[in-house]
Amino acid sequence: MTRYVVGRVLQAAVVLWAAYTLTFAILYLLPSDPMQLQLAAAGVQEDSLTPEQLAGMKAAFGLDRSVGAQYWHHLTGVLHGDFGISLTTRQPVTDLIGARIGPTLQLSAAAAVTALLFGSVLAYLATFVRLGPLRVLLTRLPAVGASFPQFFIALFLIQFFSFQLGWFPATGTEGIAALVMPVLTIAVLASSVLAQVLIKSFDETLRQPYIVTARAKGLSRSAVHLKHALRNAALPAMTLLGVIIGTAVTSSIVTETVFTREGVGRLAQEAVLSQDVPVVLAVVTLAATVFVLVNLIVDLLYPLLDPRITAGEGTLL
Amino acid sequence: MTLVSITGLDVGYLRRRQVHPAVTGLDLNVAPGEVVAIVGESGSGKTTTANALIGLLPAGGRITAGSAIIDGVETAGAGERTLRRLRGSVVGLIPQDPMVGLNPTQRVGHQVAEAVTLRGVAKPAAYAEAITFLEQAGVPDPELRARQYPHELSGGLRQRALIAIALAGRPKLIIADEPTSALDVTVQKRILDHLGGLVRDRGIALLIITHDLAVAADRADRVVVMRHGRKVEEGDPRAILRDPAQAYTRTLIAAAPRLAHGGRVVPRFDVRDQPQPAPILTLTGVGKTFGTFRALDDVSVTVPRGRTHALVGESGCGKTTTLRIALGLESATSGSVVLDGTETADLSWRAFRPLRRKAQLVHQDPFATLDPKFTVGQSITEPLQSFRVGTRRSRQARARELLDQVALPVSYLDRLPSELSGGQRQRVAIARALALEPDLIMLDEPVSALDVLVQEQILGLLADLQRDLGLSYLFVSHDLAVVASLAHTVSVMNGGRVVEDGPVATVFTNPASEYTRELIDAIPGRRADAL
Description:
The structure holds two protein chains of two kinds. By secondary structure, chain A is mainly α. Helices cover 77% and strands 0% of the residues of chain A. Chain A starts with a helix and ends in a 12-residue tail after the last helix. Residues 311-317 of chain A have low confidence and may be disordered. Chain B is of the alpha/beta class. Chain B is 36% helix and 25% strand. Chain B has 20 helices and 20 strands. In chain B, strands 6-7-8-3-9-10 form a six-stranded mixed beta sheet, sandwiched between helices. Chain B has a six-stranded mixed beta sheet with strand order 16-17-18-13-19-20, sandwiched between helices. In chain B, helix 3 (108-117) packs across helix 4 and helix 15 packs across helix 16. The radius of gyration of chain B is 25 Å and the shape is globular. At the A-B interface, helix 9 and helix 10 of A face helix 2, strand 6, helix 3 and helix 6 of B.
């Protein structure tokens, strides 16, 4: 068990490092000059500076060093929680993200929980309901939900619930009411994907011979579903948990833009537009960390839910 | 007063808005405490009958006519609520495959206790009672086993746990659907003996569903033979064995080696007085360890050219490992393997490849061994393609020739495995193994997943092919009845060692070891002895 945990944690660390390095490489190989970007952001003509001034500025930002040295400098900085200075605002990147992370965390967490709830309930109903037409409807619903682009869902929600009914504000970051529509926007897609996998898994599980054994005992239908099918059916869908939460985080870029929420997603969108390399790097690393952590948690939860996972040790045949 | 009273029962499956009959006009009674066996091949309607009794027909299945009264309750047309009251407490079920019959994410004891609580027993008491049931079902160390998960138990123990579940509802009837066909013969015998004793002591009626008339005849008070959904014959097993009324019953008797020869096991080939041909495969002093586990210890096996050598033993005896080493799929830790004059024990995968044309494999499970997306023609010609033999056209011609050799119509070339029966699939697998004209074919339990009648046909085909093509077989099986009808020589294996070897005729008539005697004794059909 200890070996399993240590192994998974090490794997997660390696994945995270690889994600960071890859992002660094891509961003620094871009054909733009970070110095020029900065000058443009500050509204200074490059011609108006003497070569000595330019060199001084480069040295101040560490841009005169080799790529390897810059990478090492950044990596050690990141390990100490320092993501460098934003090229456009000249504020520490850590402060920028710190100021924006609250709303994004709220949004992502609420969206992930909602998606889990909607997806599971829908899948359960679709397999438990016996009325033919209703069953068909419930089974097809996820495919419909998964086919709508998120910006379309967002615009539809704004049009209907804000402009026509006036129930929720169309923009803003404050309060629960402002959270409802962005959460729904993300949850529709994520819960649809989850429900699709769960329904398939449920159908598969209900055809297993041990379900016949359970029914032959005289258990009621709901007892068979809840006590014997649910846990076995949920196992394959567990892997999706990482994807769902990941989707919730990455979807925040589109969602925060549409609903003008002051979050990390919007920060990322602005940073990409102005090619603010340190900020983009930090946001990507942050997203990768969330992905890796969620998947790590899923991996560590697996043996608790499926006794066969650690079967390598102590098998008695 | 009968416990089960079935009259004029019709059961059908609804497919594409048409009812396909599975059981037609069945009459069957079971008295309390009686042991009745339904015998028939796949598709005979025997399992459908059992499922209908307990109200567990698969989706689309329904009772279309007649009545099935169990313990005074009509089940034809009954609702879920009525059927639920019967399940567990009146009718217990022991399902077919113990490997998949238990919930993999629940502890064994909990699964037995669940059946006890349905009788209204409170949870702590139910758990204690569950352990008693496990003990009664013959599970050693029941407290430990109850705490374990199904994957930690062997197939035999899982089957015993399933028996405990069936007992836990205190039923009046237990339906055992091919209860042990997935298990080794010796385990099968022990479990069926034990189950027989349990129901006798408790006065529980037992309905055994099986494809093997020998199994049925050994244990039942009454045998019912079914075919194509109808009852063919019914009566006392001794009377049926002595004087079968129907031709179909006679073919079933002929297919069971022990029944066919009045209780004796008579090998098909007797090579006691013949000189042994030169070997095509020789394993000498082969050892294999996995970590600290010794899978094989000083195993020596010889397959004479043009003959069949059988490796016999129970699960875990090392017979499959020996086969894998002979095929070069696994490397031996020590010893030598000589295939057709070439030492292969130390060959790399690449160096072994040309030799693969000489030795081919037919696998145990015909349902898993064919790629479901390949047509029969694609499966058969794949080995030719991979060794770049012939042109596209000549390969097609070869495929037709091969289908002819395994007695399948040429029109099957474009079929998919899902359109074939188990026996037909195994014929395709044999045709594929023959494609490269090998000298040696390794047969890994080639008939253990098939009905006795189909087994008989496939074994006949293998014997014909050997005679016509001069093939040599290395044949792995846990079933001595099958070995008797195919092999010339045999090695009996136990715990990774060869305990006895020689001509089948010698080993079977005069076994030198206690273990071999036990295996022979486990071949069903003992009742025929008394005739």
